[in-house]
Amino acid sequence: MRHRVVVLALDGLLPFELGIPQRIFGLARGSEDGDRGRNLYEVVTCSVRPPGPVATDADFTITVERGPEALATADTVVIPSSYELGPVYEEGRLTDALATALAYIRPGTRLVSICTGSYVLAAAGRLDGRPATTHWSSADHFQQLFPQVRVDPDVLFIDDGDVLTSAGVAAGIDLCLHIVRRDHGTAVANDVARRTVVPPHRDGGQAQYIQRPVPEAQFATTTSARAWALGRLDRPILLRDMAQQESMSVRTFTRRFREEVGISPGQWLTQQRVERARGLLEATDLSIDQVAREAGFGTATSLRQHIQAALGVSPTVYRRTFRAGVGGR
Hints:
43% helix, globular, 10 strands, alpha/beta, 15 helices, 329 residues, two-stranded antiparallel ribbon, single chain
């Protein structure tokens, strides 16, 4: 049985965000013997009303062929954002129609929101006491409306196990790719990313987009330094060496790097080495010591500490999980 993703289309939806789950999950194909090339997810769309037209924020409507009963068949429910949330956005409460629709969702179903779709989950009480995110421009309002939610406005998405929330618009792509990676491993997620022509993993969080979405033209970038570092992750990399690649002082480079990427060079290097280690653990038979050296952590102890901090499991457990070809829930 394929993992069934049901996308809830609300009036005032953004067509771009509605299409993200279909595009990302729809492209995920099996890579193991026995399921190679098989679609790993089935994606369907429903509305809170009987089948029929649903308004968008564009100059067209869409026709949805399933009503809210489809939510009862979901393994994962995705709620994209809407510009017409009404009392959900204004008062933090569900409409009767939305409450009735959400009641169809079975216990244990994975819940996912894109952008301000998090308002629906919060109004339903599904985020009480949990970490969550939303579009940075709505974060303060979201926190005031739902003080019981632990809002993090800086990240692209938050994975809290059975409930996942993303920041605005394109961060929905990041979250859906993360879910594919979590369900089926890096190779499958990377294949989807390549076919969608997007990066498999974006560095940093929303902070890099808030004040300067695009670096001003007169500012030099740190792109060359990042490319240089990625080519030598297995070797020691000093901050001054990265700065030299851009002919900058360490202080200037550090400031520009944080402006462009959203995190410090050291944090970025650790992220890249964790990603390198994940790929090696999944795709090779290298020993833990060898993976540590190839990823630039030097020792198995350092690798274990960083993998545990980033993923919540040891390298051995991570390898066992993803080499076993675990599928979606």
